[in-house]
Design brief:
Elements: H1 5-15, E1 20-26, E2 29-34, H2 35-52, E3 59-63, H3 68-79, E4 83-87, H4 97-102, E5 107-110, H5 113-121, E6 131-134, E7 148-150, H6 151-164, H7 168-174, E8 181-186, E9 196-200, H8 201-214, E10 222-224, H9 232-245, E11 248-251, H10 258-265, E12 269-271, H11 274-289, H12 293-314, H13 321-342, E13 349-352, H14 359-367, E14 372-376, E15 386-387, E16 400-401, E17 406-409, E18 414-418, E19 425-426, H15 430-436, E20 443-451, E21 457-462, E22 467-468, E23 478-479, H16 481-489, E24 494-500, E25 507-513, H17 515-524, H18 532-536, H19 539-557, E26 567-572, H20 592-598, H21 600-607, E27 612-620, E28 626-637
Parallel strand pairs: 1-11, 3-4, 3-5, 5-6, 6-7, 10-11, 12-13, 13-14, 25-26
Antiparallel strand pairs: 1-2, 8-9, 9-19, 14-15, 15-16, 17-18, 18-20, 20-21, 22-23, 24-25, 26-28, 27-28
């Protein structure tokens, strides 16, 4: 049945008013907000915003972390028929200018002083931004800016208004239709300005229900909302599905306490990009390396059992009696405590998406009894396109099409999707809309892939990024940069990779080490270092990374299609790639073209056969100041393997 976000809120408030809708951790204590209290909060906010002039079709940006008042503001905006636009809370002020001006935004919600300062900084460039409401008043007492007010003032005005106009919220909500615009999300803008992806209430809620039905989600689930609300993945899991199912969303105290809060909440439904799962595993392995010899031996023994038995157990296959007994013992002594330490002892369903996840990483979590699965989707498809059934989760696929989805593969290998969750349009950009949406309703994903014999979708890379090697040993061979980058990132010592090779005679890569993992590795070998730049250029670190590169080359040589993507030369960058420096998007995707321009001397040095290259780079600090980092980077060759011939 088609419905709207505010209607679902009112339904939950009527059917189970005292049940918790959200919890927020403040000063170390979890505070619950019931569905009835949430509905009252939304009603007062809607009344206040209506009095302030927000009307149907208007846009309001929300800037901040996951907080009950941020969610309530989005619901209040939707209740008036207006459109909430969540922006990334870690975005620089200038990154907010285009979305605000593109969507003619007059109203903004800012969580705290940091977000208020951003909006005030760009106000001259966004003169229509008349109303800014803040939640946390700390540091804002002496601010005297026109249109700047506390949410508490808005609530007080709204309370008076709704008292004078009983039934106001219900009357407003009854006018909202499922096909009305429900929210807008700006893409990460890897090439040029971001685009506003327009979604209706129905497109978001249809996909939320499809995902919920696939995994049998109920109102009893517990979710931790810790990723940016501006990312549609977080928005679907902790907003759309929250209202579709009525489960509890828990908001951590801060980004620094997420790991602790994860253990306290014990979510039953969990979502994280591969980077988070990598970070959790890296921290586990670092701690184990520092543990005593007996504990290390026990861990490694039972993990070898888990890797042999666990995946089959999770796939529902029969297991020998002895293996079941040993696994149960391992569960008691290692896997159970490990799941508890990770905060995943109650997880029933865990998902990862956004990037490919390494087979070893994927296998690790499933082998210790965590039902980790992959999904496929995007901002334009309201996330849910493909999902993995419980007993069919594999690292090399992204699952089967979920309810209502059709998939076909174009002649050039591009995946085309038809779904009830497709975007309505790109805001004020009919040309871009026409590029991705065909007249008969198919969406061009720009991803290259194919459907395997089991009906699962496999993604190779972005269509525009798949290229060819030109000249040299592998002339004419396919080059898939993202595939190569992901295979290298599977190693815990490698955090980020940028690969080049299209139209060239060989593949070369620039690598970021994982500072924590490599730092711990260096300390255990009594290898001194003064910081990231110093550690990255150590000969011992280069040897460590070289071994990782050559392992990937050996794997690629066995792949008939991608043997030509083996890495010939590499270097380790002197600084971490950073979204603030424009090198990554806010969703941590590599901006390969921008990096190629910024680090052109390094790219040239890789392909010209040099053994070192000096580079000086301007960096931006969190407080807005700029500085520079310079170093002479070593460049190394890696061993290339002859392609393995397929058996006749």
């Amino acid at each position: 049945m088609q419905t709207t976000f505010p209607r679902l809120l009112l339904n939950h408030a009527a059917q189970r008013p005292l049940d918790p809708a959200m919890r927020e951790k403040e000063y170390g204590i979890w505070q619950a907000l019931s569905w009835a209290d949430l509905a009252t909060l939304v009603e007062q906010l809607a009344g206040g915003l209506h009095q302030a002039g927000l009307r149907k079709g208007d846009h309001m940006v929300v800037l901040g972390a996951n907080r009950p008042r941020l969610y309530a503001t989005m619901l209040a905006v939707q209740s008036l028929g207006a459109v909430p636009i969540p922006l990334y809370q870690d975005a620089a002020a200038l990154e907010c200018v285009f979305p605000i001006n593109n969507a003619d935004v007059c109203f903004a919600f800012a969580e705290d002083q940091e977000q208020v300062d951003k909006l005030l900084e760009i106000r001259e460039q966004c003169p229509q931004l008349a109303h800014i409401y803040f939640d946390d008043p700390r540091g804002l007492r002496s601010y005297d800016e026109p249109g700047l007010a506390a949410i508490d003032e808005l609530l007080a005005a709204g309370q008076v208004f709704v008292t004078q106009h009983p039934g106001f919220l219900e009357a407003q909500v009854s006018q909202i239709q499922p096909d009305d615009v429900g929210a807008m999300f700006f893409t990460s803008g890897t090439t040029g300005n971001p685009k506003g992806v327009v979604h209706t209430h129905n497109s978001l809620l249809d996909r939320a229900r499809a995902g919920a039905e696939f995994d049998h989600l109920t109102y009893k689930e517990e979710v931790l909302a810790y990723l940016p609300p501006a990312w549609i993945g977080q928005n679907i899991f902790s907003y759309a599905q929250w209202l579709a199912c009525g489960y509890v969303v828990n908001c951590p105290e801060s980004a620094a306490t997420v790991t602790i809060d994860l253990k306290e909440v014990g979510p039953t439904y969990y979502f994280a990009p591969p980077r988070v799962f990598e970070g959790l595993l890296t921290s586990v392995m670092i701690r184990m390396e520092d543990a005593g010899a007996l504990k290390r031996r026990m861990f490694h023994y039972f993990m070898s059992v888990a890797q042999r038995v666990g995946p089959a157990r999770m796939a529902g296959e029969s297991i020998a009696l002895l293996d079941r007994v040993v696994y149960a013992l391992g569960n008691l002594m290692v896997y159970g405590p490990l799941r508890n330490n990770l905060g995943m002892s109650r997880v029933r369903v865990a998902y990862t998406a956004g990037e490919a996840i390494g087979p070893d990483l994927f296998s690790f979590y499933r082998s210790i009894g965590i039902n980790l699965k992959q999904l496929y989707g995007s901002t334009e498809t309201a996330v849910f396109v493909c999902l993995q059934p419980d007993h069919e989760a594999r690292a090399d696929t992204v699952g089967v099409p979920c309810a209502g989805v059709e998939i076909k593969v174009a002649a050039d290998g591009e995946i085309l999707v038809k779904s009830p969750g497709l975007l309505k349009e790109y805001f004020k950009n009919p040309a871009a809309t026409a590029e991705v949406l065909t007249p008969d309703g198919w969406y061009h994903t720009s991803d290259a892939g194919f459907i395997d014999a089991h009906g699962h979708l496999k993604i190779i890379d972005r269509v525009k990024d798949v290229g060819r090697i030109k000249g040299g040993l592998f002339d004419g061979a396919m080059f898939a940069p993202k595939y190569v980058e992901n295979k290298l990132k599977f190693f815990p010592h490698i955090k980020e990779v940028v690969a080049y090779g299209d139209g060239r005679e060989k593949v070369c890569v620039m690598i970021n080490i994982d500072f924590d993992a490599v730092g711990n590795w260096a300390e255990r070998r009594n290898l001194p270092y003064a910081g990231y730049t110093d550690l990255a250029q150590k000969p011992e670190v280069y040897q460590l990374i070289k071994e990782c590169v050559e392992k990937v080359n050996a794997d690629l040589s066995a792949d008939e299609l991608l043997a030509g993507s083996q890495v010939s030369r590499f270097l380790v960058l002197h600084k971490e790639l950073d979204a603030d420096d424009g090198e990554l998007t806010r969703t941590n995707k590599v901006r390969r073209g921008f990096i190629a321009e910024k680090y052109m001397p390094l790219v040239d040095a890789l392909y010209e056969g040099r053994t070192s290259q000096f580079i000086e780079t301007v960096v931006k600090f969190e407080d807005g100041r700029t500085g520079s980092v310079s170093a002479t980077l070593r460049i190394d060759d890696a061993k290339i393997f002859a392609p393995v011939k397929a058996a006749a």
